[in-house]
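Checked the freezer inventory, then went back to the computational side. Two predictions to log before the end of the day. The first one is the construct we discussed on Monday; recording sequence and tokens without edits.
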Amino acid sequence: MPLAADAPAFLRALFAAAIAAADPARHLPGRLPPPSGRTVVVGAGKAAASMAAAIEREWRGPLEGLVVTRYGHGLPCQHIEVVEAAHPVPDAAGHAAAGRILELAHGLSADDLLICLISGGGSALLALPAPGVTLEDKQAVSKALLRCGATIAEMNCVRKHLSAIKGGRLAAAAAPAKVVTLTISDVPGDDPAVIASGPTVPDVTTFADALAILAKYGITEPVSVLQHLRAAADETPKPGDPRLAGCETHLVAAPQMALEAAAQVAREAGVTPVILGNAIEGESREVALVHAGIARQVILHGQPAPAPCVILSGGETTVTVRGKGRGGRNAEFLIALGVALNGLPRVYALAGDTDGIDGTEDNAGALLAPDSLARAAALGVDAKKHLADNDGYSFFSALGSLVITGPTLTNVNDFRAVLITAQE
């Protein structure tokens, strides 16, 4: 069967390989320290429950602890309690879980071990406001930052300085215990200080940096947040802080692993993979224009690889929300890509979030084909209007082209594959 006839299945196979490559069960064995004294496991993120389950399967001593994950992303564990909470805007369940996690850290001695399981989504899930800041304040700031298109590093800088647990504060609370952090990266560059706002990692950002970010996006409320940042009363632990001297951080899964796994599947199918990068940022619709340009270059000039080839990329794009539609950055990328390609033959694409959730919707992403815009028009669905309204979800839903995986229990951020088939 020609590749074009089976392009959706091929793209889904690449996505499945990318997700499987980030499965905690594949990476945690062999990463664990030997049992010593009391061992407490804490964690936060969309992969927290699956990481906790993997720890339980491998650990050979007494174990206790608590992790918090997104609603619907939990797994049953025997010794480690799993709590579910809201993401991307924090809620009371995440607030309560974060408080309990900090209490567990405070109760440790020099003979004890704290294993911290960190993955993407942990910033919103580990919601413990600093003194003088309320949960409602943090919710308001989170919503504002999400709507204005702030990068994940910018969002997490602000979050650290409104928190009593992020930006190294959890590790500081656990001193003098040994702290071993196992992390799955969902951020460009895999910086552990950015992943889930680095609760066990020294922080180089400052209150002044956080204030500058709010000023950049014109965020002037809540007033209590600005007052807290201006007071700068209790800075996050910095590199060299003696409270973090007993900390180790190990990256166990990252976006590059997902792209390389997908690339291998492509090679086995006789399709040349081209990995653009695992840390691509920027507005979703602008990143789409770049991918569209590369697809045209392949068709017209056989560069950077002759067809059949697949352009692979990862990272975390952003969406500045101006409309009222049901979006998600991957759906936004795809509808913008479709508009840019305007029915260009031989080009197919899939974009999805490896956690199974594109934004706040129930889909991981969607599929685009050369005839997607024409099929939509026949249904009375205008791609440009949906793009202007940030309504990619509704566009692809009308076509039956959503990719729905359910929670994958891991998270190495976005995955994009643009397939250019050979001329028949």
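The second is the one RB wanted added to the comparison set:
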Amino acid sequence: MALAEDKVREALKQVIDPELFVNIVDLGLIYVVDVKEENEAGLHDVNIEMTMTSPMCPAGPQLVSGAKNSVEGLDEVATCEVKVVMDPPWTPEKMTDEARDHLGIF
């Protein structure tokens, strides 16, 4: 059964930034979700490219491991690789309206 990118993004919403208390999807930190074709066991490998709000984000390692664990927790996933990219740089415009409202950014 094919795994939809939307399902992966929903799983990633379980990962909450410990400083901002908003999930990494609504913060706009997830740039790429690449779901590979299923293997012989019917499982998918998933590659994610994500960024941080700043290059020295203290929560970076926690957010990366949280992303990997949440996606690998899906029944359809074999492995998840998370790559942190800084280009393009993150800006508040990448956040959803809900995240901006939560943080009081207009």
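For RB: DSSP finds three helices and three strands in the chain. The chain has a mean pLDDT of 94. Let me know if you want it refolded.
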